[in-house]
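quick one, two chains, predict together pls
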Amino acid sequence: MTDAVIDTAAAESRPVLRSPGRMAVRRFLRHKLAIAGLLVLLAVIVVTVFAPLLTSHDPTRVDLSQVRKPPNAEHLLGTDGSGRDVFARLLYAGRVSLLVGVFSALLAVGLGTLLGAIAGIVGGWVDATIMRAADVFLSFPVLVVMIVIAGILGPSVTTMVIAIGVFTWPGAGRVVRGVTLSLREREFVQASRAFGARTRWLIVHHVLPAVFGSVVVVATLAVATGILLEASLSFLGLGVQPPQPSWGNMLTDAQRLTVISQMPWLWIPPGVAVAITVLSVNFVGDGLRDALDPRESS
Amino acid sequence: MTLLSIDDLAVEFKTEDGIARALDGVTFDIGKGEIVAIVGESGSGKSVTALSILGLLRKPAARVVRGSVRFNGRDVLTMSPRELRAMRGKDAAMIFQDPMTALNPVHRVGKQIAEVVRLHNKVDRATAFARAVELLTLVGVAQPGTRARQYPHEFSGGMRQRAMIAMAIANNPALLIADEPTTALDVTIQAQVLELLRAAQQETGAATILITHDLGVVAEMAERVLVMYAGRIVERADVRSLFARPRHPYTVGLLDSIPRLDAETQALKPIPGSPPSLLAPPPGCPFAPRCALRRDRSICVTERPPLTDIGDGRATACHFQEELVNV
């Protein structure tokens, strides 16, 4: 082809590369609460991951000579009813809580994204079936269902992750379907079809990048939900089983009034840990929403 | 050699208010390497015709009532989804009207062009991307290597349309369909894009269907013209004859409503009235209510004039076309 059609204006200016990703990072960094949340969250992750370096105590070692001792130089946060070190338990418990939160969120968001995208782009009876299924899952009281599941399958971390994931996918599913529906009518999706793309291609190349922002936000919030559900289930004795520590089952001790009034070292640390972690995750989620989806920000 | 042959194609759309007959007995052929323009106002069925060729009519809203669309001898309307996908973008490719919306804002332009290559060729990403850069060079984008790594919002309208054309010619299609390729562009860019389309057409030897309502574009590009009105072809002619001696009153009206710099009259002559509703088409000629030639003759509202050959490869759908011979 000829040189005559070359865009002369463009030849002179030196174009700058500016990606949507970099702009999102800049917006996130402006969000102070989110930064604070992120720092706290990182701190929580670091202390739980490096727990063995921060305490020499074994979180599961029973010492009946040291039962329910208040905080002292040897046991920074005292000991529990079986003489186990509360500080060590707190750190190791964080691992379980965060793992359950993260993996149940990944499962929920993975399922939700896949089903939501398929529902949105295929439409018709496929859409109707998936969304009615979502309604059914949403109308179960999650906690009660999980108590039943834990009762039938026996309580374990894996069961809990799967149960939380399977029962919280409709949140992500609805968000993704909504974005997909509006996307389906966009001309670039039509153009892609006109160039021979199939449904799977459309989902991978157009839907996933478009829903990425919303999905990340839903995922962070799902992590918070997961941590809370883990705590609730373990508190009820249906989640993580002692002697393995989790923030939820550490709180089980607080069911007794004497513990609440006279042994605050047994329940304040895990309670605060859950609250701080969930709060930070939610702040990060808010920050991500503002950064990745500028239209949603207030 | 005939590349595309549409025969008696009728398409209906289900709407809130009832069934709209978007196409009603459209028939035409397109030879290999030929440039044909389809002209008509909004709602005349130009774009529906284009979508039918690629099998892109959205079911169940759209329904093909009768007719066939044969591309390379095979009926597009009976192809399986797999066969359709194999055809789209490879044998027949479409250039969309608005390059602002036809590119995905979240992907780099080069990647989007490379995707069209990868849809139809088993090549890795790097090879496809190299081909994309090559295609951008071909459509006259300066600094194609850098440009390929940019996002659509960093491109001007004209450059985006160049990128769209690059996507369309990526797999050397036998048929290019350009749906109002210049409508969304500035006048100064329009000429460049038309020039590029012509160059792309010569480069690939693809037959080209140019859908437009701009008769200036038609005169510049096309060899043959199909004039559509209310879902039908009302006149078919080579471009010179059409402009010199239109044989359908609607074409006459279209030509009269072009602004001219050389004519003495100052005011434009618009066609009075508006196109008929496609929901309840009148039994006679759809153009009758707006026709200057009708002069209250009743056959125009009772009987539909068929598209009739009038020699020299021309055809028109008017009961009184011979009255236009010496106008």
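The CA atoms of residues 10 and 24 of chain B lie 4 Å apart.
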